[in-house]
Design a protein that fits this description.
Strand content: over 45%
Oligomer: single chain
Shape: globular
Number of strands: 20
Order of helices and strands: HEEEEEEEEEEEEEEEEEEEE
Distance between the termini: 28 Å
Number of helices: 1
Length: about 450
């Protein structure tokens, strides 16, 4: 896997750069260990199977800023080992690594990024819920390299011209052995690594102009060639052309409004075309200890399940409030997903409210709790997931802590499509999962 090569390459760059250029360099590492009791590790309503799961969680962080080089690595892993083998062992990884170099001062730049993380098999489920079980997950590995020029037509204007190459891969297991998020390829005909691969070649141009101290006007254009195919083998390759105009306006000291809008025209290799709006709008403001936010967007997201690019509409509202010893975060999201292929033209609507709360019992002891709901529906089927959590966390020192947590999951997939199951059977009836975990983390 590419990541095995890029992690040491990034480490060498970040270790070598301070000696050559000076600058700021930080390094942090740690390891966590936890023991979890899960009363339904197979996520079944008919025959729930309990198990004890051991978690081993390594952490690595590196940062460098100096001269013409910037680099950062953030990695954490979760190795889950099941005591009585009621489920497969899992190896989940989260990686965000990037290096940016200024090859010609104030003119020519090069960015390289590597991302690795578990995601839901269906993009229609949205972002991964923190602490969710590893069922129904696959691993997404995304590599990006982008050389670009930055020009300054005037003191207040900046023009960026460049090219971006993106390679996205999803690892799957089709039965027998489950190594959904493993770094290393496994032997055996049941395991297929990087079966879904897509590549993007993008040529972009962006112009920004600081019209006033508070108003910045922007215009972006992008031409993208996307190469890939669906799981069924159908060609989903396309050309997509986008254009946006808009800007950012600082309404007040803590109030910012951002709007970008324009068309996105897609020409598929199989013959069809589509014209969608391409919009981003955000408004955030602070009043005392409260922070409010509104956002609306219409963009695109890749769907591992179908292999196509989905039109994604997202409409969110949130409120954050800080009290003397506690914090409250409330939010609600409405999302729509629609595809262009005849196999998935139906529109999916999803409703996602959530609440998170934390309270400082002492200077070192903190209580946290939260709940969220994900309800998805379309003309032919629907599904719902509910999550709740509560926990205590005690800080041993600045980098080490111990915690006791409880997580609850409820799922009703009775109407969910099962053709992307990949060896796991869904329950025909709603089921629930209760998990309790004691965890230690030591940083150095």
């Amino acid at each position: 896997m590419r990541t095995l090569l890029l992690i040491p390459a990034f480490c060498l760059i970040l270790l070598y750069a301070p000696a050559c250029f000076g600058g700021e360099f930080t390094f942090e590492a740690g390891a966590g260990a936890g023991l979890e009791y899960n009363d339904n590790v197979s996520e079944s309503s008919d025959n729930p199977e309990p198990d004890f799961v051991t978690h081993i969680k390594p952490v690595l962080k590196m940062y460098y800023q100096g001269g013409r080089v910037y680099g950062e690595i953030n990695y954490r892993g979760d190795y889950q080992l099941h005591a009585v083998n009621t489920d497969y062992d899992d190896f989940s990884h989260w990686l965000d690594a990037q290096v940016r170099g200024e090859l010609v001062e104030n003119l020519f730049f090069l960015e390289i990024k590597e991302e690795l993380q578990p995601v839901y098999r269906s993009a229609r489920r949205g972002d991964l819920t923190e602490g969710d079980t590893t069922n129904d997950l696959i691993s997404r590995n995304r590599f990006t390299v982008s050389p670009y020029l930055t020009l300054h037509p005037s003191e207040r204007a900046e023009l960026r011209l460049g090219y971006r190459f993106t390679d996205s891969r999803y690892s799957r297991n089709l039965g027998g052995q489950d190594t959904r998020n493993s770094f290393l390829p496994q032997s055996g005909s049941d395991f297929y690594f990087d079966t879904d691969i897509s590549q993007q070649h993008s040529f972009f141009a962006g112009l920004s102009h600081q019209a006033t101290d508070r108003l910045t006007l922007s215009a972006n254009m992008d031409a993208t060639r996307w190469i890939g195919e669906s799981e069924s083998g159908r060609d989903t390759s396309y050309w997509r052309y986008t254009a946006q105009i808009g800007g950012t306006y600082e309404v007040a000291e803590d109030t910012i409004l951002k709007i970008m809008a324009g068309p996105a025209y897609t020409i598929y290799d199989h013959g069809s075309t589509s014209l969608w709006p391409f919009v981003t709008a955000e408004l955030s403001w602070k009043v005392g200890r409260s922070e409010f936010g509104l956002s609306a967007s219409m963009d695109f997201t890749d769907d591992p399940e179908s292999g196509e690019s989905l039109q994604h509409g997202a409409y969110n509202i949130f409120w954050k409030k800080e009290f003397d010893r506690s914090r409250l975060h409330l939010g609600f999201g409405y999302h729509t997903y629609e595809g262009d292929l005849s196999s998935s033209q139906y529109l999916t609507n999803a409703y996602r409210p959530f609440v998170n709360y934390s309270y400082d019992l002492t200077d070192r002891l903190q209580f946290t709790a939260g709940a969220s709901l994900n309800m998805a529906e379309n003309p032919s089927q629907g599904s719902s997931w509910a999550y709740a959590n509560a926990g205590l966390k005690y800080e041993l020192d600045e980098k080490s802590w111990v915690s006791l947590s409880y997580r609850y999951k409820y799922a009703d997939l009775s109407n969910q499509s099962k053709n992307w199951n990949y060896g796991r059977s869904y329950s025909e009836s709603p089921y629930s999962v209760n998990r309790i975990m004691l965890e230690f983390y030591f940083g150095f």
